[in-house]
Amino acid sequence: MDNERNQRRFESVFSKKVRAGKRRTYFFDVRKTKGEDFYLTLTESTRKFNGEGYERHKIFLYKEDFNRFIEGLEETINYIKTELMPDYDYDEYARRHEEYEREDDDTEDMEEAAEIETKDNKAGLESEDDISW
What we know:
Strands 1-2-3-4 form a four-stranded antiparallel beta sheet, with no helix packed on it. The termini are far apart. The protein is extended, with a radius of gyration of 24 Å. It folds into two domains: 1-88, Nuclear Transport Factor 2, Chain: A (Roll); 90-133. It is of the alpha+beta class. The protein contains three helices and four strands. It has helices at 2-9, 66-84, 92-132, and strands at residues 12-19, 24-32, 38-47, 54-62.
């Protein structure tokens, strides 16, 4: 019973996954407290170079800090974009990510089509065998 209650306590009410390249993913999870309150966990998950598991880093962000956090984040990002690296193409990674997603989708589509074709071929062989009797 206690384990079930703890499990519910850590369930996400809302979750958003953001892929950032091949090795890094960010998770934004809204979680519920025992007192019916909500908070945000920001998780960076990075696949280890040896391919054995992931390294995770978490930040817990509570509602009283949301506005200050967003203001600080926006100010910092804008400083980098306007003062430190104004000529950098910040959309480059978005375009690369879209290409990666398209390639990944195409690969999945091809694998699915091959799987369907294999099933159809097996079904065809079985029906031919049935007809020949």
